Amino acid sequence: MTAYRLPVDMPESMRVPEAQARADRRLRRQRDLLRPLGVAVIAAVVVSAVNGHPGAGVHGRPLAVTVALAVFSASVLLAIRDPFVRQRVAAQAVTIAAMGAAGVALVALQPRNATELAGGAAVWMAVARLPLPFGPALALAVTVGLGLAEGLSGGSTAAILATTLLCALLAVVAHFIQEARASQTITERLLAQLEDAREEQLKAAAVNERGRVAGELHDVLAHSLSGAAIQLQGARKLAEREDASPEMRAAVDRAGELVRDGLADARRAVGALRGDALASVAELETLVASFRHDTAADVTLIVEGDERELPPDVSLALYRGAQEALTNVARYAPGAATRVVLRYDRDRTTLMVEDVAAGEIEGDGLRGVGGGRGLAGMRERLERAGGSAHAGPTETGWRVQLEVPA
Fold it and tell me: pLDDT digit string (tens) for 305-361?
């Protein structure tokens, strides 16, 4: 069969092997349907040869007829089996050549019989199974052999032409079937690649749109938050000149830190839109260390179970949940000892942030900072990732618990 190849600049994809597998299955079904026809050809040739003159036997010309029938039958049975198409081209060519030689011998031994069918079967197999130029060359050799055998054994010109036309017709039909089969396969593979190209185009368009949105967000947020940070620096200097209370200066300082953190978070969000790596639970240690440094609080990170890689959206949701929970500790329970526990169970991953207040909390912390939507946003993010969030008071403080099925 002609070897069709895709252009070298067209990349392979997951759909291409699937298309090739469908083509292989279709080819096997077609061979299964044609296999009974091969058996019928063997039966027709055997019946014709046995009833011809001379018939099959064990001496002289009958013995030659018997040998030719045996070779023809064996070669056809080999050719119609599934393993035949997986053999090397040379092995297939030898089998089909033996089939053709047996057909030529039968025509020479029984010139006025229907044994031309044996040679025609060899011509069909040569064109249908062998690649260029072996298939057509072998088919031509068998056709010439049949014509010579017919002529040397006393066949008429009409009989020779009929045999030649039969072989030519079989070769043409086999060629068109083989071409149609190969064309269908290459079409399916090209359609698979076209589908992949469309997906890549859609992804590229999405990336470009995210880049545009990211640029707009960066310009707006960077300008606004940077301006807020400058204003807070001025407010801090003004508070120092006006000899403001320590609580006031601490609140201004913390507000500046929150603005800087918000600017950093905004930049990370913009980076995520542009395709940069997302924050994950792998960065919890850095988050806890930063919180400990900024607030001078006693906060510890505990990891239980066998660590494993989580889906990006799930890992990001847990990280953002821990971030929000620690921010709430700084707002409502400054100075409280805090535990961050990340536990990997068999079918779920749990993150718990729990603070333990030692006595009464002095002051209001940062209760007035923020929009009050932190817990709701955290819960919505977890639900989008397939998890859940629970928050509530304990006997000694407050606990936030996040669970995801991963």
Answer: 999 988 888 888 899 889 888 888 887 888 889 999 999 998 899 999 999 865 444
The answer, as to whether pTM is greater than 0.85, is no
Q: Going from the N-terminus, what domains does the chain have, and what CATH number goes with each? A: 15-198 (no CATH), 278-406 (3.30.565.10)
Interatomic CA distance for residues 113 and 110, integer angstroms: 6
Question: Which one, of 391, 386, 14, 390, lies nearest residue 192 by Cα?
Answer: 14
At residue 368, the pLDDT reads 39
Give the Cβ contact number of residue 177 at 10 Å: 15
* Token pair listed for 244: 């403001």
Contacts of 52 by beta carbon, 8 Å cutoff, 6+ apart: 65, 110, 112, 113, 115
Query: Would you state the structure tokens that stand for residue 64, as one six-digit string?
Result: 């030659």
Please choose, from the candidates 405, 259, 392, the residue with its C-alpha nearest in 3D space to the C-alpha of residue 318: 405
In whole angstroms, give the CA distance from residue 202 to residue 359: 58
Cβ burial 99-119 (10 Å sphere, 16+ → b, else e)? bbbbbbbbbbbbbebbbbbbb
Rounded CA-CA distance 87/101 in Å is: 20
67 close to 113: Cβ distance less than 8 angstroms: no
